[in-house]
Amino acid sequence: MTPVAERPASLSFVPSSRPPLTIVRGEGASLWDASGRRYVDLGASHGVGNLGASHPDVVRAVQRQAAELLFLGSGYEVPVRTEFLARLTALLPPALDRVFLSNSGTEAVEAAIKFARATTGRSRVVAAMRAFHGRTMGSLSATWRKEFRDGYEPLVPGFVHVPYNDADALRAAVDETTALVLLEPVQGEGGVHPATPEFLATARRRATETGSLLAFDEVQTGLGRTGRMFAFERWGVVPDVLTLAKSLAGGVPIGATITTEAVQARFRGSHHSTFGGSPLACAAGVAALEVTVRERLAERAERLGSMARERLSHLPPEKVREVRGLGLLVGIEMRERVAPYLARLEERGFLAIPAGPTVLRLIPPLVIDEEDLRAGLDAVEEVIGRG
User: Fold this and answer.
1) Cα(88)–Cα(218) distance, rounded to whole angstroms?
2) Are 182 and 144 in contact (CB under 8 A)?
3) Contacts by 150-157 with C-beta closer than 8 Å and gap 24+?
4) Which of 45, 158, 176, 290 would bridge with 123, disulfide CB 3.0–4.6 Å?
């Protein structure tokens, strides 16, 4: 029998040209590898780490809850779940007060699709080009990029895609056969593209006119990331369905599909998640929401993100097409592939991620020390200036 330590292990089936960095410890926006070298997280958590690594309030909440009640099925009331739902819905517009809890962003989107189809009796879903909504079959069908979809066809039928921020195309695509209009207020994986006010207003108006549901996927943009508690607040457009995940429980897996009483009343069918709403995740969620509000992290993201985009706006145009984003979600669109620049940043001790093949994405913890963020921006300027 092969010893366990020698068995190849992977959490990803994405090909890689080099061995991954091994991280053994984290604190805030700092990460350390096995040799003791420190790195600054400018995106390594993929948006999960709004509170950084192992926030002490979240750690304490998890420890307490694990000692009291690690798991209980959703058929029973648990005080910590009730508290979490109350804290979450208190941050939202009053109409968004029905919450289904799951374990991830893709599960939250799957639930949104099912709720829309079961509520409207229709099957058509209108999403956007460049969209990313997850990798399970329903959310993957709403996702645009070919490399995510290749090898899994046929996908779920009934999905169509329109150009992002093309209000006329969206208006034409949404009709009385549409169950759901599914959009990201800011496309993250798709290149960090914020929506225009006209695009989201058109989505709201057409969904209402046709009896469709409007869903905003804020798995990456929610909980202060864009300089507001939820990105849709910038446009004053309230959806019928909202999906959240990533940073919602401070690093503990969770997903939430939030909708209205009217949608719940029309729902026909059943949907369930065994581990969704576990006491452990809800305890972490209570702590994470408390820190986010207490530390005014949305305001901090707005201030630091504005500073970052101003700094980066002076990058050489022969290398950079555009710098865009909201809050501490920043995309630098290069004129060539971004992988070499990410490697150079890692050599300097800064971990960023791509958003497509040519966009360098900065999505650091909202608690990042300003000194570390400025050092990271210095490093970005250095590696891009060097070419």
Assistant:
1) 14
2) no
3) 157/123
4) 158
Q: Contact, 361 vs 354, CB < 8 A? A: yes
Q: What is the 3-state secondary structure (H, E, C) of 51-70?
A: CCECCHHHHHHHHHHHHHCC
Residues 6+ apart with CB under 8 A from 216: 183, 184, 185, 230, 231, 232, 239, 241, 242, 243
**Under a CB-based contact definition with an 8 Å cutoff, are residues 212 and 191 in contact?**
no
**186, β-bridge pairs:** 194
- CA–CA gap between residue 235 and residue 303 (Å, rounded): 19
Q: What is the DSSP string of 74-85?
A: TTS--HHHHHHH
* pLDDT single digits (tens) 216-267: 999 999 999 999 999 999 999 999 999 999 999 999 999 999 999 999 999 9
CA distance 131 to 145: 7
In DSSP terms, which residues pair with 38 in a beta bridge?
A: 32
> 63 Cβ partners below 8 Å, 6+ apart?
none
Q: At 72, list the tokens.
A: 């209980």
Which residue, among 158, 244, 157, 240, has the nearest Cα to 206 in the 3D structure? 240
Cα–Cα dist 212/177, whole Å: 8
Domains of the chain (ranges, CATH numbers): 4-55+297-386 (3.90.1150.10), 56-294 (3.40.640.10)
Catalytic residues: 132, 217, 246
pTM above 0.85, yes or no: yes
